[in-house]
Amino acid sequence: MGKRFEVIQLDDVYPLADEYGNEFAQRDYSLKVNQEYVAELAESMRKTGEPDEPITVIPEGGIYYVRTGRSRYEAMKLLGTRECHAVIDDDTSRKAAIEAIIHTDTKKKYEPSEKSRIVQQLQMFGDDQYVSEEAGITVEQSRRIRKSVKAAGDAAEDLTLDRLIAMADFAEDPEAVAALTNCTVREFPAVLERLEKERARAARASSVVSALEDRGIGIVEDVTGMRAVAVVSKPAEVPEELPEGCVATEHTVAGFYAIYQPAEDEEAVDDAKEQAAATREVLVMQFNEGRQRRAEWIADLIDNWFFSSPRALIAYVENQERRFKFPNVREFVEKHGITVPAGPSEVITAYIAHDSSVYGIWNSVGELARANCENYTSLLDAMMADGYEASDEEIGIYNQAAGFLGR
Fold first, then answer.
1. According to CATH, what is the number of the domain 3-110?
2. Fewer CB atoms inside 10 A, N or C side of the chain?
3. How far apart are CA 400 and CA 359, in angstroms?
4. Rounded CA gap, 238 and 247, in Å?
5. Tell me: the pLDDT tens digits for 82-131?
6. Which of 5, 118, 14, 17 has its CA nearest to residue 73?
């Protein structure tokens, strides 16, 4: 029969639903933003009681389901409208209705949670190519969403598309899926970053074990009577030349392995000393990796100085006892009792001064150095207060320094 134009009773109209009464592809009208939108629509049609553009409905057994125009339908209900003009579409399936509903995203953008539910429902009717074309996402994104929905089960209904896309890499890990599903929106980025780091660490450790085993170096737990010759975290770090009889053991720092060689009979091996030296070597490597990460963050902050408002770093610079490089500038400021706001160049200078130790938080003989520890912790405190997200390794070094300083 196609389409026809009729006047229908609003009491006979219902939201689009399946045979079990579950609503399909709809906005969440419990959200304040949607309630306000409906109220605005109602106000705009108050004179006539119905919209200029009629709703489209699907007839079924004497009642009608809203194909397009759900917000207009809600606005008429709010006004108390009893009957309205509507386009009756006899040839529309629920699949086509959902397609039409997601296309109305151009009129009023769906909230992230709403669009997620609609995309998940589209996936029941077709493959990822179909979903890509209808929802305006890539085939790969649809594939990832489908994978995450299967892993998360019923909980997926409340997850946004970006969250489902990010979760796909962990779909085979039930613990990771639970962590990513149960955390709050605010917590999600941190939980995702932690899981990504753990996975990268595990992959890196696996590649190191494979490289060691390819060299005939077995992984053992007991290295009594042996001495450490190297600490590695990547296959490329395994030394080219190693004596016969070397073994490796998992280091106390996650993702690293210490390579040991048999000690000569006359050598007295102090394993605690060997481990301490190996640990320092690893942590200095981590310090240098973190230094690059911190430098990039500072550079980005300076590049966006007028938008970033780094209050903690500015205070950090302004509170330094001998802040000004040139004595005559310091003398002028003190003489006139003025306050000079810290600028980007001073923040860079302070960063370089407090993050340039060759030995990290240690001194040249491998002992924790008070000045280096104070510089590192005070700088990281200010950076984190201004939004810097320190890595697990940076936090580990920070905790060592803070413990040494008695904080």
1. 3.90.1530.10
2. N
3. 14
4. 12
5. 999 988 887 666 666 666 655 655 555 667 777 787 788 778 777 888 88
6. 14
